Amino acid sequence: MIGEDVMDLNSVVKDCQSVIEHVLEKIRSKRKIETFDIAILGLLISQRNKADSINILFENSKYSEIPILYRTFFEQEMYLKFIFQKNTIERAKVFYLHEKYLNVTKTDNIIKSLGKDSKKALHLKAIVDQKIKEDNSNFNNFEELYKDRCERYEKYFKGIEKKKIRKKSWYSFENKSISNMKNLMKSLGSGEFYDGTYGLSSDAVHGSNAPGILKLVDIDKEKSIGNLTESVPIPEWVLENIRSALYLELIEFIKFYKIDKDKDMRSLKAKIEINTLLQH
After folding, report:
1. InterPro entries this protein is in (predicted)?
2. Please, is 101 exposed, middle or buried when counting C-beta atoms within 10 Å of its C-beta (0-12, 13-18, 19+)?
3. Is 210 a member of any domain?
4. 280 residues of the chain, pLDDT tens digit each
5. pTM exceeds cut of 0.85
6. Structural domain harbouring 144
7. Is 55 among the domain residues?
C-alpha cells in the first residue's frame, strides 16, 4: 500500500528538508535572500522541527508535551495559510518585521524596568550595544536599532497610537477586525478548529493540565493504593493533521517559488499530490 512511505511523518519531514534546500539553492543562484524569504522559510523550518519533535515523542510514548508543540504548530499553520492566501510578499515582510519589532520593544521594556539610568540597566544596555556592533549591522547602538525596527513596522499601522500597536496582532495590519487568532482562523475558513484543536491545547500551554496527564491504575480498593501511569495517549489524528498540513503547505511553497517544473522536484510534487488525495 502506498500509505506507509507517503503517509509516514518522518517522510514528510524529509520532504520538507528537500524542498527547503532546493529553494535556498535556487534563490542563491538568482538573487539575494529577502526578508520575505526568511519569514516563509523560517515558518516552514520551524514547523518541520516541531513535526519531527512530535513524532519522536509519539514514538517513545511521551505524550504529555505534544499538545504544547501542536498548538504552536497549528498557529504557524494559520500564519502560513494567511501569508499564502494573497499579497504573499507583503504579508511575509510584515511577519518578519513583527518579530524584529517584538525583540526591540521587549528589550526596551526590560531596560526601563531596571530603571533607565540604573547600574543594571546601563550594564545591560552596554551588552546589547556590544552585541549590535559584533553583528556588523548598520547600527551603532540599541537606540538606532530600536528606532529603525519601530518605524519600519509601525508604518503598517497608520493612525494607531504607538502604545496600542504593541497589543495588535501582526496579521491585523490589513484588516482591523482580524484582531486575534480566533478571528484569523475564521477569516481563513478554519474557525471550527478554534474551540477544538486549538482550544483544547490551551491548558497544556499554560501548564494547568499537569494533573490530567496522570491516571491511577491497578487500584487495590481494600488498601486504597494504586499506581500512576501517563494518561490516555494523543490520538493518531494529531499526526495525520500534521502530515496533511505540511503537505498542503509544501504545495503552496512549491507553487510560490515556481519549482514544480524543476527536475529534482517533479517526483516529490507527484508524491505530495498523491498524499493530499489520500487525506481528503
Report:
1. DUF5677
2. buried
3. no
4. 333 433 588 888 998 999 999 999 999 999 999 999 999 999 999 999 999 999 898 888 888 888 889 999 999 999 999 999 999 999 999 999 999 999 999 999 999 999 878 999 999 999 999 999 888 778 999 999 999 999 999 999 988 998 899 889 999 999 999 999 999 999 999 888 877 777 767 777 777 777 777 776 666 665 555 566 666 566 677 888 898 899 889 989 999 999 888 877 877 777 777 766 666 5
5. yes
6. 89-173
7. no
